[in-house]
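Now produce a polypeptide, keeping tokens residue-aligned:
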Amino acid sequence: MKKEKNFWIGFGDIHENTTNLKKVHNIKEADGIIVSGDITFLGGKKRAIEIMGEIEKLNSTIYAQIGNMDKPEISEYLDEKGWNIHAKGKKLYSNIGIIGVGYSAPTPFNTPSEASEDTLLAWLYKAYKEVNDFEKLIMVSHTPPFGTKTDKISSGANVGSKNVYEFIKHVQPDICITGHIHESKGVDFIGKTKVLNPGAFGSGGYVIIELDGDNLDAEIITV
């Protein structure tokens, strides 16, 4: 039976906690799974294979990238599987492109995969160049845009990326899925771009993206 709508499920900050995978509604029926980063907790390829293997058993169409808590070797594994969206642009659906930027802006904690603001911006434009002819665009950024409801730590300080913000402001993707700052679960807008941080996956947050006719929208769901 044909589905009435196309939909994708996105989450991140897994940190090796997959207990909520089987609680995600219709995960097997989704058109694909989008992983925004932090598959492991300071882990390498071996651990990522185990985690991503659990996802693949439920849905084998995957778009993924590493976060700052993943060792860079995991990005090579994602390339081998054909899943990697970091610094890449891909076709998600007939008129929808997807781009990704993993790693994170610099942190005080010297985590395995951090990059400068300028590097993040270069990666984003490299990815965008590959899909700028699509009518609709989904952006996946492990680091949230600066100065939004999605990048505040518990003290209230904004710690996201200014260059991610500027890219969104200029390009105006339809949707941006982000993460990294677990306590900043929420939704905000930069122009027309809807920015969603579902929080850590272990806390039950994920994003569902739906295409209904010409309307592309997303919302945060909690299991």
